[in-house]
């Protein structure tokens, strides 16, 4: 079995903000890189399947630029690694196209990625659509079936609910953060990962030049405030303040017994041309 694991570099600011020379982005001393828990769960799940299925190879695809973070993930149990250098502000569609171009060079039985990491923001769904794979989301466990070559995945539906899914290979599975797979790298594995050669993949997909329409809050307009007439007496000014300056409308009021009111209403409707 050939397994591909897709992980992505996450960048977060740390410490007091220090801006770069362009005064637009944060300086390199103000950011740190890490790997999402769901991406690590995908890598550990691949190692678990490798221990159950003899002859399994794990190919790690890393979206980022930090070689040290990549080596840390490789030490979990990757057989080979490929670095796909992408920009930090790259949209999900272009990222999916770049990853698809890299994955289509080799045929994999199973592609694993994180639900909130490399597969987040719709990237995982787009990759599965581009390649034409079965998509399993929010997986908390995966078990290969040795009888018919299928896999069994347990998905989380929230609030403690679970769903068991049987699917055929090839497929793309997005692992949830709650996947209970723990695998610590030993010293020999760290040394082995440090000696492995990392391939670099330069995608041919060009970045889209379309501009996004941004929503902006409207500028607040000053609200007119009613001011009472200073020529009126104090009591009349208070009445104006209480009424908000709204004067009474001049209306004709129909008064009297119901029969007289009905006659007045009919004559009014006839006079105005409604009847």
TrEMBL record:
Residues 23-200 form the Electron transfer flavoprotein alpha/beta-subunit N-terminal domain. It comes from the Bacteria. Signal peptide: none annotated. It holds the Pfam family ETF. One of its GO terms (molecular function) is electron transfer activity. InterPro entries: ETF_a/b_N, ETF_b, Rossmann-like_a/b/a_fold. Transmembrane segments: none annotated. SMART domains: ETF (SM00893). This is Electron transfer flavoprotein subunit beta. It comes from Moorella mulderi DSM 14980.
């Amino acid at each position: 079995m050939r397994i591909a694991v897709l992980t992505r570099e996450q960048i977060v600011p740390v410490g007091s903000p220090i801006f770069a020379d362009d005064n637009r982005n944060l300086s390199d001393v103000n950011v740190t890189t890490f790997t999402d828990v769901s991406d690590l769960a995908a890598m550990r799940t691949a190692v678990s399947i490798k221990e159950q299925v003899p002859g399994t190879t794990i190919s790690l695809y890393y979206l980022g630029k930090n070689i040290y973070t990549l080596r840390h993930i490789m030490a979990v149990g990757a057989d080979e690694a490929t670095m796909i250098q992408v920009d930090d502000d790259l949209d999900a569609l272009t990222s999916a196209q770049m990853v698809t171009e890299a994955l289509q060079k080799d045929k994999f039985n199973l592609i694993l990625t994180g639900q909130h990491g490399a597969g987040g923001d719709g990237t995982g769904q787009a990759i599965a659509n581009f390649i034409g794979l079965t998509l399993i989301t929010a997986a908390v466990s995966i078990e290969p079936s040795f009888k018919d070559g299928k896999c069994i995945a347990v998905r989380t539906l929230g609030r403690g609910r679970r769903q068991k899914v049987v699917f055929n290979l090839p497929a793309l599975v997005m692992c949830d953060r709650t996947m209970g797979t723990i695998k610590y790298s030993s010293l020999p594995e760290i040394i082995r990962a440090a000696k492995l050669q990392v391939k670099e993949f330069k995608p041919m997909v060009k970045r889209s030049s379309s501009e996004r329409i941004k929503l902006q809050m409207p500028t607040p307009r000053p609200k007119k405030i009613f001011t009472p007439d200073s020529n009126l007496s104090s009591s009349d000014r208070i009445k104006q303040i209480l009424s908000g300056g709204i004067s009474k409308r001049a209306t004709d009021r129909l008064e009297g017994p119901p029969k007289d009111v009905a006659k007045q209403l009919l004559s009014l409707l006839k006079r105005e041309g409604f009847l």
